[in-house]
Structure prediction request, 345 residues.
Amino acid sequence: MQVGLTFNLKPVPAPDLIRGQEKGFREGLPPDWDVEWDTEETIESVRSALSTKHEVIMIEADENSCEKLKSSQPDIVFNIAEGKDGPNRESYIPVLMEMLNIPYTGSDPMTLSLCLDKGRAKEILSFYKISTPKFQIVSSPSEEIRLKKFPLMVKPLHEGSSKGVKNDAVVFTTDHIKKKIEEITTVYHQPVLVEEYLNGREFTVALMGNDGDTRVLPIVEIKFDSLPQHINPIYSYEAKWIWDRSDRPLEIFQCPADIHDELKAEIEEIALKAYKSLRCRDWCRIDIRLDSKGSPYILELNPLPGILPRPEDNSCFPKAAMTAGMSYNEMILSVLNIALKRYGI
Ligand SMILES: Nc1ncnc2c1ncn2[C@@H]1O[C@H](COP(=O)(O)OP(=O)(O)OP(=O)(O)O)[C@@H](O)[C@H]1O
Ligand SMILES: [Mg+2]
Prediction:
């Protein structure tokens, strides 16, 4: 079978661009501008996994991808392209596939855009009475904040990989919240999601499959006690990209999570409900946090989950798949086969 692989390669940073430092970043771009998109290593690992069974056609998701897809006509596309910019960036490739009538892995454009807009996703979750922290979307520091109980969580409306979610995203005062709203609107050029802060344990849940055949992989717990002392217990930009490095990995994951059966069942149930309510397809990773009473809430859904190949890179979906006994190659081929089955191919 001919499988297209659509991807966005992370640009190589300029030498003066040192992650975590506020100086030297490209003009007009936030300091964490490059945390999305995949490295050559990740793209090559996916290509290599697919090539164990199929002929792979590489298609960079740029302005020329429509022509490339039209001329190569793959039987199916394995899509990991996160898109370049804007709230609909993850939908660019799926929209083209639908126009060209080419089958592809993963969720459709509507689900990808809805999940990237955390506010829209939370509105749908709320409609289905699936717990998610109370929230408000604001576009200016002058807007009144209706959520009165501090601490609150402040994050960009449509980012991923903890872009714009630094340690100071947990706010305790009105002054601080205004400062964060100002920062996010000017640096990230988008509205701000202000949320009730949940202080319980955090989990992330990888799911694979469709309809009645969706499988929940072993639950990953994010262990905040592995982070430096005196910081906020959140899986922040610093936690993902500065303190945890492949040459010095943190013991930040516990998988399977050490939880009793009742909580495991509750987490699996809410994850499956969220997956279904947003009409996710083939695979997704869902972030969940407990409130102070121990009840699970959906933070957000990642229908295009990160899949860094090396265990020391601490990537949640591959971690869950490995714990379920899958190799990296088996994980990629399973997603492809789930999509093929969905199309009846
Ligand atoms: N309402 C909240 N209460 C408590 N912690 C939160 C809340 N929202 C976010 N966090 C913390 O911030 C982290 C990053 O937030 P979130 O998952 O929304 O960002 P993201 O950039 O979409 O992440 P990803 O890397 O999964 O794409 C979460 O993993 C969690 O630790
Ligand atoms: Mg997240």
About this structure: The chain has a mean pLDDT of 93. Residues 134-196 form a domain with the Dna Ligase; domain 1 fold (CATH 3.30.1490.20). The longest strand covers residues 282-290.
